[in-house]
Amino acid sequence: EIPGYEELQDEVARETKGTRARRILELGTGTGETAGRLLALHPDAHLVGIDSSAEMLTRAREVLPDAELLIRRLEDPLPEGPFDLVVSALAVHHLDSAGKADLFRRVADVLRPGGRFVLADVVVPERPEDAVIPCTPGFDLPDPVPDQLQWLREAGLRPRVTWARRDLAVLVGER
């Protein structure tokens, strides 16, 4: 149980509401929970989801029968764009700093002009005592928010923080 998880999911939903998303890419689909929420808000959208775990995607297929779900790592080439919306919840923190910066560039490449990237993830908080989510060294590699905003800018996106709580944050980058 991740403290702040429901609020994080609510913020992701809020940040996608105003978009007219016909094609959505989700990075790290997992069991399909976030994707299900996205499709409830955008029932006419086509969702492409990637995850490195075949087992997770098998579970996701049960709740997302019409989605296009692909076994891919975040380091692999992204599915072909353009996408109106790219979303990731609690997956990108598994990449190191260079991996995040590279992913953000590739996300910008598949976003259509006016498209939006919504990133909800574990971050290194400003105050060490705010680190409440257990991190496994070498597996969980969160970075501070200012660094991630910089990498989003370098990728050609206009970034902002829309929500933050302890060691969780939602960042939005617009193309």
Keywords:
single chain, 175 residues, alpha/beta, Rossmann fold, seven-stranded mixed β-sheet
Task: Chart the SSEs and their pairings.
Layout: H1 5-17, E1 23-27, H2 33-41, E2 46-51, H3 54-63, E3 68-71, E4 83-89, H4 97-110, E5 111-122, H5 145-154, E6 158-165, E7 168-174
Parallel strand pairs: 1-2, 1-4, 2-3, 4-5
Antiparallel strand pairs: 5-7, 6-7
Helix pairs in contact: 1-2, 4-5
Describe the fold and architecture.
The protein has 175 residues and is of the alpha/beta class. The protein has a single domain, classed as Vaccinia Virus protein VP39 (Rossmann fold). Helix content is 32%, strand content 28%. It contains 5 helices and 7 strands. Strands 3-2-1-4-5-7-6 form a 7-stranded mixed beta sheet, sandwiched between helices. The longest helix is centred in the middle third of the chain and has 14 residues, at 97-110. It is globular and about 40 Å long. The chain starts with a helix and ends with a strand. The model has no long low-confidence stretch (mean pLDDT 96).
The unreliable regions are: none
Distance between the termini: 33 Å
Radius of gyration: 15 Å
Task: Count every helix, treating DSSP H or I runs of 4 or more residues as helices.
Answer: 5
Mean pLDDT: 96
| Major sheet characteristics | 7 strands, mixed
The beta-strand count equals 7
Query: What's the CATH first level?
Result: Alpha Beta
Q: Could you name the CATH topology?
A: Rossmann fold
CATH architecture: 3-Layer(aba) Sandwich
Per CATH, the superfamily is: Vaccinia Virus protein VP39
Strand order of the largest sheet: 3-2-1-4-5-7-6
